[in-house]
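tl;dr need the bound structure. longer version: we got a ligand (adenosine monophosphate) that a collaborator sent over and nobodys looked at where it sits. i said id run it. heres the input, straight from their email, havent touched it
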Amino acid sequence: MRIVLLGAPGSGKGTQSQLLVKAHGIPQISTGDLLREAVAKGTELGLRAKAAMDSGKLVDDATVLGMIRERLGRPDAAKGFILDGFPRNIAQAEALAALLKELGTPLDAVVLMNLDLGVLFKRLTGRRICQVCGRVFNVYTSPPGAAAHSKECGDAHRLVQRPDDKEEVIGKRLEVYEAQTKPLIKYYEGAGLLRIVDADADVDTVFKSIEHAVRDRTAGGVSPKTLNP
Ligand code: AMP
């Protein structure tokens, strides 16, 4: 299975990717995670990317494409992959198509996680990540107290907020999504690859909708006319 999860920041791409990884045994390729890793390690690429990331802007295409080319070339990606947060604009989508053509591994589907803007905002401002076990919580919808204990932390999670989840940066990220990433909906609709799922549901329901949308070529979930935001 070779798919792209498309959707605004906060639409649940990361959470659903992890479930798809478990179900299908293929890797999640998240450009956001790869970039954060590079920033944390202080590599040259990380230093280059940090300013754009901190301000909610896109990292330049050449940097991201170099990273994707390297990642898709690794052996574990040969049996399939879930692209999470890539492509983010038309130039990246075209470069991806060219790269996959070269590799002889075209995409099976692009799944749009459709969600209302108000819900996105709450998800992003409420998101907290445990520094120790890596689990993702939300102070509004899934606080750590309500979740099962984790092996590493018990109940003593050390929660941090991603710097780009702060309110002042979220506005910029949603603006960037609107201007640069949203045109990909039409692009992939034109290519006959788009599947739309309602992402405003609990994690398991959304997962089932994605599985259904990927399996069934005619599944649309909701009509493009009712798209949010
Ligand atoms: P994410 O975790 O996907 O929300 O990404 C966090 C940040 O990493 C974004 O706000 C961008 O600054 C950067 N980033 C992630 N993926 C891309 C991409 N495909 N192209 C450009 N920048 C990206």
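gonna send this back to them w/ a short note. Residues 167-181 form the longest helix (15 residues).
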